[in-house]
Design goal:
The chain has helices at about 10-20, 25-35, 40-45, 65-105, 120-135, 135-145, 155-160, 165-170, 175-185, 190-205, 225-230, 235-250, 255-265. The chain is mostly helical. It is globular.
Amino acid sequence: MHYTKPALKYDAQLALLISRGLKIDDPPRALRMLQRIGYYRLSAYFIPFKVPSTDTFKPDATFAQVIDLYKFDCRLRLLFMHAIDKVEVGIRALITYELAHQLGPFGYADPKNFAPTYDHKEFMRQLEHEEKRGSEVFIKHYRTKYTSEKHLPVWMVTEIVSFGMLSKLTENLRTSLRKYLAKELGLVEPVFVSWLHTITYVRNVCAHHNRLWNRELGVPPVLPDEWTAKGISNERVHCIALMLYHLLKIVAPTSTWKMRLKNTLDSLPGLDLKAMHFPENWESLDIWK
């Protein structure tokens, strides 16, 4: 089957929405929103207002409701990015410190410190690429002063590699070191490694302005046994919020992120918390204390 749908001009997009039953009280504003945001990006926010399995909107569904949901999702992404920024910096600092002290400043460059299945050569190639394309003053200073050294110290390496690269490197460290890192964050090793990958995934979702609020996670995390025993799902955004809250209590213990999360969720009247897998009265549960 070939795709035959033509590209529609803005006024035709608006007419299509109206023909499908979406109420639009301010057409000029709706046109501006279509121009600024794009029909296809907004289409993900149309779905909750449509009759299931059809292109027809529910009675009384409005374009203003769609925009309110879109703006809420923007606020939610910013809130999650704020938490991820703090968590990422804290985890980088922890990994850097332990790699430096347990393996030495250049221990990361020795493939013997990693699992035999790890493509260490590819990591070193990517690291070289990151160094060449960067313009960090501290690296230029190091290369100018220490001309006999082939490698960068690990505390420089962890500043220039992506969090995804760092999480993959950490996953392939010797088991005893992974367990130590996990314990420092109040986790067991399989959960810790899984969370690194899930946080990277969610960070990318937020950074690319993709829909977050009711997203089914493409990289679902492994959850602590006590969470699964309480019926916590690993499929939607509630578990990510809980993960970030757990980590923030360690890396940023004075953070007011939980309160900000509640205020954000309360900012959209009628928000479907079940679509995010948030339990009722979630903030009062023991797991959120």
